[in-house]
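Blackboard transcription, Thursday session:
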Amino acid sequence: MTNFVGVIRVLTLDDPEMVATHGRQIERKYGLATRSRCIPDQRRGIYDAESERLAIPKIVPLAKQLAEEGAAAIVVSCAADPGVPELRRELRIPVIGGGSAVAHLALSLAERVGVLELTETADPFVQQLLGGKLVGVGIPEGVKDTTDLMTDWGREAALKAAGRLVESGAGALVLACTGYSTIGLAPELRRRFGVVAVDPVDAEGLVVWYAVGGGTAVG
Amino acid sequence: MTNFVGVIRVLTLDDPEMVATHGRQIERKYGLATRSRCIPDQRRGIYDAESERLAIPKIVPLAKQLAEEGAAAIVVSCAADPGVPELRRELRIPVIGGGSAVAHLALSLAERVGVLELTETADPFVQQLLGGKLVGVGIPEGVKDTTDLMTDWGREAALKAAGRLVESGAGALVLACTGYSTIGLAPELRRRFGVVAVDPVDAEGLVVWYAVGGGTAVG
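(Written on the board underneath:)
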């Protein structure tokens, strides 16, 4: 583990510290070095099929460049896994997507999984991966984007939506938007409802940590 | 993380140190305390549907006892996940199965996954979880049980079978028998073939570490 993990943000941000927030979370929790980049000219990020189609040809060259710079693995930090299949065909290093990481970690934890989305127009990728184990989808009432989540009422709405999923029988919760990572919702859900809530940045960090030899290096 | 993880072995062993080998691997790699127990009267472990049927009513009370003793989570250390759905219905702590942990971790790492089984009569549980992403099943030629794996020829046969899976396009390998953990095959496969090989005990340890707050506690 002499080198770094490349982290791709699918949202155009000007401040390098904002670009690096997911990478910093991975550094803090798993002791990995990261280098973060964001795609150009998508200030609203990926929010539907068309914006995803536009993003993929920007994600692929960014990831290739990070690989050339010496990245040991690439994380595409988005719950829709945009560009991940394409990159896995082209690169010889592990490529991890936020959506598949969070969905599969939840599937390792419970028979019935609830998904907390941000809005009704969320990409169905994570829900599709959960298949017959999906017990329900929760959406915080009144929340339109991630900035709403940072308000007291937005956080309360997210907690209520999560509570309904637990009442429906969810044994684990997927937080299917990295906005939930920003507000640190997972530990609070665990304390309140007694089920594991899987944070997408934590999940992609856990998988990339394993991929670059974490489990082996410690042993 | 003041308490311990309960680890269940589905093979009857007399020596407590042998019972604890999987638990020790989890302790070493993830810094968790473990307490291991094995089921009674199954000296050949689980090797077909009937032996699994017999094991489940022994696994459930062992796990419940570990939970009563204060276990923070339970690991059923077997690639067939015996008793895992039953325990998740009865216990309020996370229950992790070796098979679902190893399959889902591989599915977070690659589009196409190869499985290294021990013999042709292997439980199909892991292969079924991989579904359409399963690229092939490898079986080391001439190997009849885990003791064969500990010989030079058995290890060589396992390496050859893994090589064929990589040639078939596997981007990650699942080691679907904890015998491969015992001989430490995963790091060697990584070095030789450049793909991540997922060790079942490492995988269940990774998931239980997350479940008991590893990702949170460090942050």
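Lecturer's comment: Chain B touches chain A at residues 25, 28-31, 85, 88-89, 92, 94, 96, 100-101, 104-105, 107-111, 171, 186-187, 190, 194, 196, 198-199, 202-203, 205-207, 210-211, 213, 215-216, 218-219 (CB under 8 Å).
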